[in-house]
Each structure stands twice: as C-alpha cells, then as structure tokens.
Amino acid sequence: MSIWKLLGFGEEAGSQGTALPETETVRKITGALDQLPLERARFIAAFAYVLSRVARADQTISPEEVRAMEQIVMQKGQLSEEQAIIVVQMAKTQSILFGGIEDFVVTREFNAIAKAEEKRALLHCLYAVAAASGSISSLEDNEIRQIASELKIHHPDIIAVRLQFKEFLEILMDMKTEVPES
C-alpha cells in the first residue's frame, strides 16, 4: 500500500498529483447523501464538516450550534430535515474524532470544489453557527479566520462578514462590560 493510499488519497495523487482526492470524512458523509449527484454530495459533506469545525473550536458543540448547522445545511444543501440531521451528526462526529487530522484536508477539498461566492457564503454561515450560542468566542473567531485563510478569502471580505456579527463577538462584549458607565 502506498503512503498516498494510507493517507486516504488513492494512487492517482501520488503519481499524477492532478486529481484532488476525496477524504474519508467526506466519503462517509457523502454516503448519507447517496441519492444526490456525487459532486453535490461531496460539496455538502465538506460544507457541513467545515461548519462543525467552527462549532468544535471551543471544545464544546452546543445544541444551538447543532440546530444552526442543521438549518444551514438544510437550506444551503436543499436537503430534507432528516438528511440535514444525519449529515450534521456525521460531520460533528467526524470532526470530534478526526478534527486535528482532517480539518485542513477537508477545508482544502472544499476550497478546490467551491466557487468564490460559495466560499464567502460559507464564511457567513461559519459566523452564524458560532453566534448561535449567543456569543462568538475568541477561539471560534480565530478558527473562522484560519478557515478563511485556507479558503483564500480576501481580508476585506472577512472583515465585512465579521462586522455583521460584531454584537456577538465576546471580545467586544467584554469591552462593553469593562467600560464604566458615566
């Protein structure tokens, strides 16, 4: 077995380096979407996994974050509620089990298959998931910035979306409580 296959890339990545392989994480989630065209299922699987990456950034995935991910996957993926629940649960489980290993690989796969506007839409969704629990921790904000960097989203686009969620940023919430009232 080659090192490429062991890492989940298949033989073609080591020899040609042209085809972007599907990660095992994306493959498992895609299986839950077997009635969809393969490329659409891969997109949704990677999208859901990246959402779970932000939810897990602070080591806790709240029920509000799970529900936000389900709603987003249902809406953006045009899935039934049952499908969205399965996809989010699988993405969440994969993220918990293999997060350190798969985070960059799955995000890179999403980067390869998504258009620029889909990447910006994901960025907005990442902030929405982080804000679902009522505040965006510094850990979540930093994870979103890391993901945006991996997706090669331009800094002004990141700031524009971040500003839409400024009332949820813990760092700004802390500053408000520290300012003495006059």
Q: What Rg do the Cα atoms give?
A: 17 Å
The helix fraction, in percent, is: over 70%
Strand percentage lies at under 5%
- Compute the number of structural domains: 1
Span from first to last CA?
Answer: 70 Å
What is the residue-averaged pLDDT? Answer: 84
What is the number of E strands? Answer: 0
Poorly predicted ranges: 1-9, 11-18
Please outline what is shown here.
The protein is mainly alpha-helical. 72% of the residues lie in helices and 0% in strands.
Could you describe the 3D structure shown?
By secondary structure, the protein is an all-alpha fold. It has one domain (3-178): TerB-like. Helix content is 72%, strand content 0%. It has ten helices and no strands. The longest helix has 33 residues, at 81-113. The termini are far apart.
Characteristic key phrases:
182 residues; mainly alpha; 10 helices; globular; disordered N terminus
List the helices and strands and how they pair.
Layout (H helix, E strand, L loop, with lengths): L2 H4 L4 H5 L8 H8 L6 H18 L7 H15 L3 H33 L2 H16 L6 H13 L4 H10 L5 H9 L4
Helix pairs in contact: 3-4, 3-6, 4-5, 4-6, 4-7, 4-8, 5-6, 5-7, 7-8, 7-9
